[in-house]
Design brief:
Pfam families: PAP2 (PF01569)
Oligomer: single chain
Strand content: under 5%
Protein name: Probable lipid phosphate phosphatase beta isoform X2
Radius of gyration: 20 Å
Shape: globular
Number of domains: 2
Order of helices and strands: HHHHHHH
Number of strands: 0
Organism: Gossypium hirsutum
Largest sheet: none
Distance between the termini: 24 Å
Keywords: Membrane, Transmembrane, Transmembrane helix
GO molecular function: sphingosine-1-phosphate phosphatase activity
Length: about 170
């Protein structure tokens, strides 16, 4: 498996054991999952969580939907906040990317710093924002576009909640 590289710049000595453990566990997980996940799936995830993909999508939806433009303002401003905050934190910590996966970044990279993950922050930002915006009426979008009857949407929402509960309670490994 090779020795993990603690790819950091100068951190306080009390953090070095944590950084070494983090690098070891990360290398172990990389080695474990690399043969399992096809490269196209990993590349799809890489692109979909990239700022240069998700921000233009949000901006396009804002510009294409004047009647719903206020709905997309938090997406645009949130992307800019994410870019600024993650960029600032990365400049402070300057932890370099892991050495064992150099070819896994086809997306345009603004820096070579790893901490914190911009992809992880962006995905969680989008998931949280979608949840907060649509928590009370998200299922009704299907009804608004006249694809289903209201009872179809309500029954589908009920089944979806049950599936989520079952998946959370019984389908975890």
């Amino acid at each position: 498996m090779g020795s993990p590289e603690t790819t950091t710049t100068s951190f306080p000595s009390f953090l070095k054991p944590l950084i070494t453990i983090d690098a070891s566990v990360s290398l172990f997980l990389h080695t474990l999952f690399k043969p399992i996940f096809p490269i196209f799936l990993l590349l799809l995830l890489e692109y979909s969580a990239d700022f240069w993909f998700s921000f233009p999508v949000s901006l396009s939806l804002f510009l294409a939907s004047p009647s719903f433009s206020s709905l997309f303002i938090p997406f645009i401003l949130g992307h800019l906040l994410d870019l600024a905050l993650i960029g600032l934190i990365k400049l402070i910590f300057r932890r370099t990317l892991p050495h064992y996966n150099p070819n896994m970044s086809p997306a345009v990279r603004a820096d070579n710093f790893s901490f914190p993950s911009g992809h992880a922050s962006r995905v969680m930002f989008l998931a949280t924002l979608f949840h907060l915006i649509f928590q009370n009426h998200g299922g009704l979008i299907s009804d608004f576009i006249l694809r289903h009857f209201l009872s179809d949407v309500l029954a589908g929402a009920f089944v979806g909640v049950l599936e989520g509960i079952v998946a959370f309670r019984f389908l975890r490994f």
